[in-house]
Amino acid sequence: MSAVVVRTRPGGAGGRGQETWSGRWVRRLRFYLPAVVVFVGTLAVWQVFANALAGKVTVLPAPSVIVETLRNHWDDARYPLGAAMQGTLTEALGGLALGTLAGVLVALASARFLTARDILLPVAVAASAIPIIAMAPLFNAWFGILNPLSKMMMAAVLVFFPVMANVTLGLVSVDKAALELTRSYASSEWAVVRKVRIPNALPYFFTALKLATTLSLIGAIVAEYFGGQRNVLGRIIVESASSLAFDVTWAAIMLGAASGIVTYLVVALLERLVIPWHASQRSEQ
Amino acid sequence: MTDNAPVVRLDGITMTFSRGGQALTTALEKIDLEIRRGEFVSLIGPSGCGKSTLLRIIGDLIAPTAGEVTVNGKPATRARLDRDYGMVFQAPVLFDWRTVQGNVELPLEILRFDRAKRTARAREMLELVELGDFVRHHPYQLSGGMQQRVAIARALAFEPSILLMDEPFGALDEMTRERMNLEVLRIWEQTGTTVVFVTHSIPEAVFLSSRVVVMSPRPGRITNIIDIDLQRPRNDATRETERYFELVTAVREALHHPGSTGSSGSTSSTSSSGSAAGPRPPSTGRLAVEGAVG
Ligand SMILES: Nc1ncnc2c1ncn2[C@@H]1O[C@H](COP(=O)(O)OP(=O)(O)OP(=O)(O)O)[C@@H](O)[C@H]1O
Ligand SMILES: [Mg+2]
């Protein structure tokens, strides 16, 4: 999931200049073509490889088998893949929202006070060095193993630190001259936060949020490994793997991957809409 | 306030930068200077002589170690709170997320102008710097000179009584710089603001100013003040007059031989321009004091 490659899309943001409609699509096609070729090629090699191994090992089912499995188990009783994806996605997105909100609030509070920031940032760095995910069983115990909130909280904690650290950085790394400028206007501290610091932090926020989409899914799924309700991806992965139903395991993993990619893309689209002025979002001209 | 009262009055300004209670650099020592309403005063001197520091002290961005800054008859901090200053730095310091129009409106938003007034005022200022066609552009879509013009429009937007400019054209090529000089003069004549202008360029200082303040480093002091009595309005032809060359030479000599009062004396004695007339600021007296000390 974390291997999603970020590239600037050509001809975005409404398309600049007098480029024709078809010209733009040709350019986009050419831009995406390598990615599409690699994707299709990988699937093809995988399929051939899996077919060749068929009957000897069942650890690696062919793509065609996975698609078949997805269809067969979408709403069956033992491995309800459709409901599982929904359940896991709910936990992950809930955790994403909670963790992001907390991260932003703490960043806003800490950026206002230099001392608090000086204390909090080392804490955040230390905290991000701890493998928080190892605490998943504890979270299950604290919030109730059957309560989806325990998974949500795991995801939220994972999301919290990068969001907080990045947003704090964005709020404080404002050009010194910009602050002198607002000082010369006798601007209130709150106006500086609203008109300079927050806009300055938005690109940092979106960078963290893209990372956080992946983290929230990891948090939710790993927490599910340690027990809880059955209709979630993590449980299906654990149970199907221990029953050697690897086609189901792979199908569940694929659904997790798809969820990650889709949420990532939604955030990337949001970023494009909210900060079109940022260097990373400008289409090459 | 009478027309004769100084807009800026510096009294024994000393600035010592220190770290951990230990004095490191004496950037400025006992600076006295008076700037009258409507003057265009340039600060010139070698790198590190404290020009930016002096400008920042006038604008109350930093407080001096000793001495007093009086602006429009009040302490500098009061003047800043009253929005008496417009600042332009070497870098334009524009905000990427705002359009050209939005950047000029920023100070007006902070000063709580209502929307209609903001829009109209920003429009007017952008017309003044000849960027009326670029209001919807973002800063990155403009050239360096255009960005600096936006910064000037922004500084003028709330009609500050003093414009403080720190090497605003330092990053521009010679041709653009000369065009910008003309533009600044035109704006200065149209708005009647008082300008304090830091520069490294002797021709620029002479061309723009009513007075050129020459500084020397370690510690930063004023060594010379040269009245520029070139006729106004100034234009490209001004740069070819004999008087212009004389004054450029005078400033150059003052820079190279700090403390020698010869050139300054000769230029100020022939002074006839209106803005240069009036009582000499006390700072000229410092030359004699300095000579006695050194
Ligand atoms: N914040 C600071 N802390 C310590 N020393 C400083 C600080 N700001 C300036 N100085 C020192 O004060 C002196 C004057 O600096 P200043 O920036 O005013 O010079 P300047 O005349 O503007 O130079 P330049 O022409 O290169 O811009 C320098 O020796 C500099 O090292
Ligand atoms: Mg400087």
Short description:
The complex is a heterodimer of chains A (285) and B (294). With 285 residues, chain A is an all-alpha fold.
Beta percentage of chain B is 15-25%
The tally of helices of chain B reads 10
Largest interface: A-B, 22 and 24 residues
**Strand residue content of chain A:** under 5%
Provide the structure class of chain A. mainly alpha
Task: Give the integer mean of the pLDDT values of chain B.
Answer: 81
Helical coverage of chain B, percent range: 25-40%
Order of helices and strands of chain A: HHHHHHHHHH
Determine Rg of chain A (CA atoms, Å).
23 Å
Strands of chain A, count: 0
Oligomer: heterodimer
Form type of chain B = globular
| Helical percentage of chain A | over 70%
Q: Would you tell me the overall average pLDDT of chain A?
A: 82
Calculate the terminal CA-CA distance of chain B, rounded to whole Å. 38 Å
Shape of chain A: flat
The poorly predicted ranges of chain B are 262-294
**Distance linking N and C termini of chain A:** 30 Å
Structural class of chain B: alpha/beta
Please state the CA-atom Rg of chain B, rounded to the nearest Å: 19 Å
Description of the molecule:
The complex is a heterodimer of chains A (285) and B (294). Chain A is mainly alpha-helical. Chain A is 74% helix and 0% strand. In chain A, helix 3 (81-112) packs parallel to helix 6. The model of chain B is unreliable at 262-294 (pLDDT under 50). Chain B has a 6-stranded mixed sheet with strand order 6-7-8-3-9-10, with helices on both faces. Chain B is an alpha/beta fold and 294 residues long. The longest helix of chain B has 18 residues, at 174-191. In chain B, 38% of the residues lie in helices and 24% in strands. The A-B interface holds A 175, 177-178, 180-188, 191, 195-196, 199, 202, 275, 277-279, 282 and B 56, 59, 61, 80-83, 85-87, 89, 91, 93, 95-97, 106-107, 109-111, 138, 140, 158. Magnesium ion (MG) is lined by residues 51-52, 166 of chain B.
